[in-house]
């Protein structure tokens, strides 16, 4: 998989860098407005396989600040996770880690950073949707949930043809 190269980032006060255990030199940070094209490029292969919903590049640009990103020291974005707030609950979306980094702990690091960010926004529950096993989410305290408990607009936008499971976790 090809990843986009960006200048090395310094941590922002609202989202400090997190060193991954076992993956020296990588960090998790809040995405910046200019990260939109790299987010789209990172997500594209997952959309092609059906693991992610296809989204236009313009959406990644307009929603870049929703994302946390996993960044290599040389600037490559190799993972991302969106978090949108809806009153007191949040929705995690567009979670992906580059194929060559899967199993390295990057996904767990992104989730832990999302939990910290959600708590800082006073969110009390997180929802997500998955078409896969959801194993990583389940190992981090998510459980199957009734879509009717999720933010209504988000739940209505779920594609019934994708065989999506809704998961939730209390913070």
Descriptive notes:
The chain has 171 residues and is α+β, with helices and mostly antiparallel strands. The radius of gyration is 15 Å and the shape is globular. A 7-stranded mixed sheet has the order 1-2-3-4-5-7-6.
Largest sheet properties: 7 strands, mixed
Give, in spatial order, the strands making up the sheet with the most strands: 1-2-3-4-5-7-6
Structural class: alpha+beta
Which H/E pattern describes the elements? EHHEEEHEHEHE
For the terminal residues, how far apart are their CA atoms?
Answer: 34 Å
Helix content: 25-40%
DSSP strand (E) fraction? 15-25%
Average pLDDT, rounded to a whole number, is: 87
Using DSSP, what is the number of strands? 7
Tertiary shape: globular
Spans where pLDDT lies below 50 across 5 or more residues = 1-16
Rg (CA only): 15 Å
Number of helices: 5
